[in-house]
Amino acid sequence: MKNKAQFTTGPIARTLLLFSLPVLGSNILQSLNASINSIWVGHFLGEAALTATSNANIILFFLLGVVFGVSMANTILVGQAVGARDIAQARRVVGTSTTFFVLLSVAASAFGYVFTPEILLAMGTPADAAPFAIAYLRIIFVALPFMYFYNFVMMTLRGAGDSRTPFWFMLLSVGLDVALNPLLIFGAGPVPALGIAGSALATLIAQSTSLVAMLALLRRRRHFLWLPRGELSLLWPDLAILRSLVVKGLPMGMQMVVISSSALVMMSLVNRHGSQTTAAYGVASQLWTYVQMPALAVGASVSSMVAQNVGAGLWHRVNSITRTGLAFNLAMTGALVALIYVFNRHALGLFLPGDGEAIEIAQHINAVVLWSFILFGFTIVLFGTVRATGAVMAPLVILFVSMWLVRLPFASVLSGPFGAGAIWWSFPVGSVVSVTLATLYYLRGTWRASHMLAAGSVPAAVPAGVRANPRS
């Protein structure tokens, strides 16, 4: 396919940059889409409706977070097979993963649709928001199989070295979602006004349309990962591949759970210091979402690139890819951090009144926290490298230690004597711990000897000399 990057040959820096930019663009589009949809719901349907979408989106984030790990395991398996020029193995991975994702998504969709009221009740959704949340979430559960498979196809293409095609179809999906939201919420002509259900229906139509269009393009181009009618037997699960998807995917999915759950606990600590502090923290967090995007894009790109080089047995390129990823994180995340420091008040003023107490608090929060996202970005890039070999437990343990055993206790215990300032300083402290542990594992850990499949099912392991000298 013409958009496929050559990960195992040529200049590393240029290839990594050109691959990372569409991934970054896709992340930005998703965040902008969510923000625009929230504006429509919040401004025109009221606070109860916005509360409903917030509760529903927490559930959706959890569901997508769990499946993210399995998607990433599939991406790495495809990448290693493509790097080894074993296209037959790549197609076996796609066949097994397709069956797994379809069955998983249909089961989750059916369960969620039936038990939507009970799920929202267990979350403590406010009574005035519950009817909105039920209407919204039930359509989201109907859309879930399309969402799962949409993300699966995009990540599979990235594993094969193509990040441009997913970007263009993400652009199509977001464009449709943004255009359909007001039409389906308020109605026009023969289209009835559906209220909050219209916002969810817009997402369903946008993602399913983009998915069908992307699959049609892959079929027309005869993409090497497209399974024609004569090869549908590959959809029968390969047990070794299925085991890898679960055993390697679950720890990567649990990383998302560790991050999201610690964020919920952190919010409860912030809430103790009053509404002004909570508002300031909430606005600062919105800016942090964008600050983290370059590192997440580079980390995912490093993982795809390393996976292909591991599959090809080109271990001498792995350290170069990692160093390049670290440099890109420093340049891109560092530039965003510097920009916000220079225009700190102006950036926060987009969300907060310029003469209120909250903006002063938010400025202080950013002054303490922002720089630490450069360190956290280094951690993400190092994780991207080690997980591409199949080493998935160490990143999970490191995240758990830095967030649950260091950051949260630091914030909780010290916020008593030192106030909210302890919460803000817990972010740099946690980031220093995570980057230190990640660096030690990268330099001295056993990740080079890890594998995604059972021994004998993957390309030959690292040459002995490379294992003996991690800096080679």
From TrEMBL:
It comes from the Bacteria. Keywords: Cell membrane, Membrane, Transmembrane, Transmembrane helix, Transport. It is found in: Cell inner membrane. It is a multi-pass membrane protein. InterPro entries: MATE_fam (IPR002528), MdtK-like (IPR048279), Membrane_Transporter-Flippase (IPR052031). The chain crosses the membrane at residues 58-81, 93-115, 135-155, 167-188, 194-218, 326-344, 364-384, 391-410, 422-443. Its main location: membrane. This is MATE family efflux transporter.
